[in-house]
Specification:
With 330 residues, the chain is of the alpha+beta class. Helix content is 24%, strand content 26%. Strand 8 and strand 9 form a beta hairpin. The longest helix has 19 residues. The structure holds uridine-diphosphate-2(N-acetylglucosaminyl) butyric acid.
Length: 330
């Protein structure tokens, strides 16, 4: 059936927060033709565009989105030797599961991350010492600037901590497919302390271990809303980090691309003690304070209000400005 543009489509059920108002216009796309048609519809009507994957990293405002939401639904996975090539609308964790089943190493530490393959390179998803940039070979995207499909090699994607060219040049590219160069003869990546002891495990055991750790740190999406880490860990200058570590002994910190990355979870837990702090139905999650949990019926303004409160506490205590990791849609 040809692509239809619907009106006033509720967005809350399409997000893991289960929050937010409707899309003024809404289209599901299953191929490049439909993407081009949807984009020209938006252009003709001068609408803003929101590309939606699994809805696992967005907070949609209570008023909804007054433009066109394009929901990415291209599916399919191909294997070429040790490379898996997946369409943007594929579920990320299903791809990880397949890689593990087929004995391909490289993305097993990224088990259990909600969302789609297409969204994964946009924020360079990462967990337990792995990032997507470690295995990604290339991304195929529709470049709205040239109107062409382009293939960007890993080195052209501008990857950094939870960022990429797709995020920096926001709304230029629509990700279509991504290829992951995996390895039949890989070895466990046990660099992250939570995974210590896995160095002799097989792929299945590692995946099970990661899923178990995550289940203990994030809310059950069947019961509550969340988008994983709500904030980025702040990256500060070496001098600022040294100052903070002197003042707050034990403050975990790690070398980063352009400074020192601080553990915000540690600061929120041990210094500010904000676990359980709430605004309306939104609260700082008890088991991981970087995460905001929203009970059913919470509003976007509850979540945003809580995020603002937390940011203010951090700023007052540490003189650091923290940034949301979640994309806030107005
Ligand atoms: N910590 C506490 N109290 C807590 C939880 C954590 O003090 O209740 C301290 C501990 O010292 C712990 C440290 O914080 O060792 C780090 O915690 P965690 O391992 O959970 O990692 P994180 O830095 O808080 C990041 C990512 C997560 C990813 C984990 C694991 C960001 C914004 N978040 O969290 O990614 O799962 O590492 O690798 O970088 C996401 O991006 O949405 C996300 C969930």
């Amino acid at each position: 059936m040809a692509m239809q543009v619907e009106e006033n489509v509720p967005l809350a059920p399409l997000t893991t927060f289960c929050i937010g108002g409707p899309a003024r216009h809404f289209a599901r796309v299953q191929n490049i033709k439909e993407i081009v048609r949807a984009l020209s519809f938006a252009k003709e009507k001068a609408l803003k565009v929101l590309i939606l994957g699994g809805g696992s990293n967005v907070l949609i405002s209570d008023a909804g989105f007054d433009g066109l939401v394009i929901k990415i639904e291209m599916t399919g996975v191909e294997r070429d030797g040790e490379t898996l090539i997946a369409e943007a609308g594929e579920n990320w964790d299903a791809l990880v599961e397949r890689a593990v089943q087929e004995g391909l190493w490289g993305i097993e530490n990224l088990s259990g991350i909600p969302g789609t393959v297409g969204a994964a390179p946009i924020q360079n998803i990462g967990a337990y010492g792995s990032e997507i940039k470690d295995t990604l070979a290339w991304v195929e995207a529709f470049d709205t600037q040239s109107g062409q499909v382009v293939r960007l090699q890993n080195s052209e994607c501008g990857f950094g901590y939870r960022t990429s060219r797709f995020k920096k040049e926001s709304s230029r590219f629509v990700v279509l497919r991504a290829a992951f160069k995996l390895n039949k003869n890989g070895a466990p990546n046990a660099s992250y302390k939570d995974l210590a002891g896995i160095s002799r495990s097989n792929l299945d055991e590692i995946r099970a271990k990661v899923l178990a750790i995550r289940a203990g740190k994030f809310p059950d999406l069947q019961k509550e809303g969340t988008a994983g880490s709500f904030f980025l860990n702040p990256v500060v200058s070496a001098q600022k980090a040294a100052e903070l570590v002197r003042k707050y002994p034990g403050f975990p910190n790690f070398p980063a691309e352009n400074g020192v990355k601080l553990s915000l979870a540690w600061a929120l837990d041990n210094v500010l003690q904000v676990k359980g702090l709430s605004v309306g139905g939104a609260r700082v999650y008890e088991k991981q304070p970087l995460c905001i949990a929203a009970s059913r019926g919470s509003s976007a303004s509850d979540v945003a209000g809580l995020a603002k409160k937390v940011s203010q506490l951090v700023q007052d205590e540490f003189k650091i400005i923290i940034e949301p990791e979640v994309k806030i849609i107005n």
